[in-house]
Amino acid sequence: MHADGPDETQEREEPLRGIGAVAAQTGVSERTLRYYEEIGLLTPRDHSPGGMRRYCSEDIARVRRIRELQTLMGFNLEEIRRVIAAESRLSSLRADFRASSDSEHQREVLDEALQALDELRDAARSKIAALQGFLADLDERFARHRRRLEELQAVHDAEAKNEQET
Questions:
Q1: Count of CB atoms within 10 A of residue 162's CB?
Q2: Is 109 exposed, middle or buried, given 0-12, 13-18 or 19+ CB atoms closer than 10 A?
Q3: CA 6 – CA 9 distance, rounded (Å)
Q4: I need a labelling partner for 79 at 20 to 30 A (CA). Which of 16, 121, 130, 163 fits?
C-alpha cells in the first residue's frame, strides 16, 4: 500500500495514469479496479484535484499480480488478499533485514520471513492438490468414455462382420 501522500520525486519521475488507461493496460474493467480498491486489494497512488484515481507502475504491477493469482492459481479474492498481505510483509521484512546490522535481529527477521513463505507454499500446495484431484477425475472419466467407445466399436465391428457373412 502507499504512504499517506504521493512521493513528489516519484510523481515527477513517473507519470501517473488514469483509471481508463490502467484498465486498458491491464485488461480489467474500470469497475474491477474500483472494486479492488473497495475491498482493499489496490490503493491508487494519488487522486487528481477532481477526485480522479491516478495509478503508478507499482499499482499496475499489483493489478497484474492479482490477475495472475486468479487465472494461474485459481485463487479467490480473499486468498489473493492473504497472498498479497504476505508478499507485502516479506517486502517489509527484506527492507528491515537490509537496514539492520544486528545479527540476532536479522535471524528473527529471517525466521518470520520463512514462516510467511511457508504459508504461501501451503496455499500453493493446496491449490495444486485440488487441481491434481480435478485432473485425476477427468482422467478417470476420459478412460471410462474411451472404454465405452471401444466397446461400441467392437459391437459395430461384429455387426458389420455378421452382415458381410450373411
A1: 9
A2: buried
A3: 9
A4: 16
Residue among 78, 63, 73 at smallest CA distance from 32 = 63
pTM, entire model: 0.70
Q: What is the pLDDT of residue 12?
A: 56
Would you put residue 144 in left (φ > 0), alpha (ψ -120 to 50) or beta? alpha
63-102 as b/e, with b when 16 or more CB fall inside 10 Å? bebbeebeeebebeeebbeebbebbeeeeebeeebeeeee
Residue 13: which region, alpha, beta or left (left: phi > 0; alpha: psi -120 to 50)?
alpha
Q: Where are the domains of the chain?
A: 1-72, 74-166
SS3 18: strand
CATH top class, domain 1-72: mainly alpha
Q: Is 53 helix (H, G, I), strand (E, B) or coil?
A: strand
Cβ atoms within 10 Å, residue 161: 10
Q: Which residue in 63, 58, 31, 64 sits closest to 46, CA to CA?
A: 58
Q: Hey, what's the cell of 87? A: 508478499
The reported pLDDT for the residue numbered 73 is 87
State the distance between the two ends of the chain, measured CA to CA, in whole angstroms.
81
